[in-house]
Design brief:
By secondary structure, the chain is of the alpha+beta class. About 45% of the residues lie in helices and about 10% in strands. The strands form six sheets. The chain has a four-stranded mixed β-sheet, covered by helices on one side. It has a three-stranded antiparallel β-sheet with strand order 3-15-12. A two-stranded antiparallel sheet has the order 4-5. Strand 10 and strand 11 form a beta hairpin. Helix 4 packs parallel to helix 15, helix 8 crosses helix 10 and helix 12 packs across helix 15. The longest helix is centred in the middle third of the chain and has 37 residues. It starts with about 30 loop residues before the first strand and ends in a 6-residue tail after the last strand. About 40% of the residues are buried.
Length: about 500
């Protein structure tokens, strides 16, 4: 075992967080991992080796302490920490069906609607100020946008996070935000010996609030789910009675949000099971997408030129067409990918080897836990040229022939067109993981983030006072700013 590890936490601290990448070999980290029965753990920094692992095994053992709190809040049938098996595959299949490219295309108008509501709220706040400038916590704004979007897309429910006078949270949104913060608070290693946080039944003020907020969220979800199941049953019955005259029934009518997609393929699931599934989807997608938007806005404050390119693209593409997708906003998408590469929403992931895995002649035995520290892998020069620099043009280049941004192809393109770096290999972009357990909502997350950023850049410039330290917050496998007050400047109509 490599020396210097903690008796309980091993070397995991050195593989996560905002740490500098050391000059290490791919296979020199054999250590005891975080509270996991002292099993041997290997970490890899090669994107190629990480892909091999992620694609060859989907097994992932959960940390018991964390698993206990996740199941308490998200339910016994939550997908988050299931190691695999038939139930996991079945539930994941339902979600995958609901998040296909065709299904997400149906959600585009909702994403644009929520982005426009966010822009309207911020624009009105700016117009109140004589200089057209406000300073807002973009963490809060991003969370509100993501919750509003997920609420409408997943449930057909409006959380009322934006109004014509500002950005706010409804009572339901406040309850949801509380539960998102509760799991990592109780799972924190410093809370292990704190009975006030480990025992939900103790009549403390915090526990009383927990049960109140959880009741609000579960009541909302169960009522929406029951109503959707009833509507689907009634629609199916009408479809059956009309089948002699209309092939296919009314399936098209009920495919209006993610929940109805799932109900359509899982009619035998109970309201309780669907509630656990929808809680998991909302919790998983809400914070990760909000972190992505927060970091990309912060990163853009350092690069006015990149903001200008985003603004130009948004004004060219975002007219009144709500069918615009990430394929149309190539530069904006490249900026988001570059921000996610430097600041991944999930800072590490892991797999357990169900069988021996061959990594270029090095055999990883069965029974190993393999940690993939994304914060280090994605900024390793062996995976990306000039990996620690924010360079969106590693993904796209400007085409003078087409007068637009086009994607670069790493297989045929180096720096022949004057780019500062060679084209990046998209396969090395593991911010959404890879293999059977990759992020099931990655298409939706990228669509949300891209449309949100394009809408913001079309109307605003952003800046940040670098003299203010950014307070970071650690939450399970995420790492993000606690609060981030960014200055938002309303653009003039002719301002690029």
């Amino acid at each position: 075992m490599v020396p210097g590890g903690h008796w309980l936490f091993g070397h995991i601290k050195h593989l996560t967080g905002p740490l500098k990448v050391g000059d290490t070999d791919y296979f020199d980290h054999l250590f005891v991992d975080y509270a996991n029965e002292q099993e041997p753990v290997l970490s890899v920094l090669s994107a190629k080796h990480a892909r091999t692992i992620l694609r060859q095994t989907s097994m992932r053992k959960s940390v018991k302490m964390v698993n206990r709190h996740v199941r308490q809040t998200l339910g016994q049938q939550s997908l988050v920490f299931q190691s695999g098996g038939t139930d996991w595959k079945r539930q994941r299949g339902h979600v995958q069906y609901a998040l296909t490219a065709n299904a997400i295309a149906e959600y585009n108008s909702i994403i644009h609607e929520c982005a426009n509501a966010m822009v309207t709220a911020l624009t009105n706040l700016c117009k109140v100020e004589s200089n057209g400038l406000i300073e807002v916590d973009v963490v809060h704004v991003a969370q509100c946008f993501t919750l509003e979007t997920f609420g409408k897309i997943a449930l057909g429910h409006d959380f009322h996070c934006f109004s014509s006078t500002g950005v706010l949270r409804s009572r339901e949104a406040e309850a949801f935000a509380f539960l998102v913060n509760d799991i990592p608070k109780r799972s924190n290693p410093r809370a292990i010996l704190n009975p006030m946080l480990q025992m939900y039944s103790l009549p403390t003020a915090y526990n009383r609030r927990y049960w109140e907020e959880r009741g609000i969220v579960e009541s909302l979800l169960s009522s929406v789910i029951q109503r959707s199941k009833d509507e689907f049953a009634a629609s199916s019955k009408r479809g059956s009675s009309e089948s002699s005259n209309c092939t296919g029934g009314s399936s098209k009518k009920i495919r209006d949000n993610l929940l109805t997609h799932i109900i359509r393929t899982s009619t035998d699931d109970s309201v309780e099971s669907l509630t656990d599934m929808m809680k998991t989807i909302l919790f998983a997608g809400y914070e990760t997408t909000a972190i992505t938007i927060t970091f990309v806005l912060y990163n853009l404050t350092k690069y006015p030129e990149f903001q200008k390119h985003c603004c130009e693209e948004a004004r060219r593409i975002l007219q009144k067409d709500n069918n615009v997708t990430i394929s149309d906003l190539r530069y904006t998408r490249a900026v988001i990918m570059e921000s996610m590469r430097l600041n991944p929403t999930v800072i590490w992931t892991s797999r357990n080897s169900a069988k021996a895995i061959d990594l270029d002649g090095v055999i990883i035995p069965k029974g190993f836990r393999i940690v993939i520290p994304l914060t280090k892998l994605l900024v390793d020069d062996r995976n990306f040229e000039r990996a620690k620099e924010f360079i969106p043009t590693r993904w796209v280049r400007w085409s003078t022939e087409k007068n637009e941004w086009i994607e670069r192809d790493h297989r045929h393109e180096s720096t022949d067109h004057g780019e500062v770096v060679s084209a990046a290999d998209p396969a090395n972009f593991l911010a959404f993981s890879d293999g059977a357990r990759d992020c099931v909502g990655k298409r939706l997350a990228m669509n949300e983030s891209t449309v949100a950023l394009a809408s913001l850049m079309k109307h605003f410039k952003v800046s940040y006072d670098e003299s203010k330290p950014v307070e970071m917050k650690r939450r399970l496998t995420s790492w993000f700013p606690h609060e981030l007050d960014i200055k938002i400047h309303l653009r003039d109509d002719n301002t690029e």
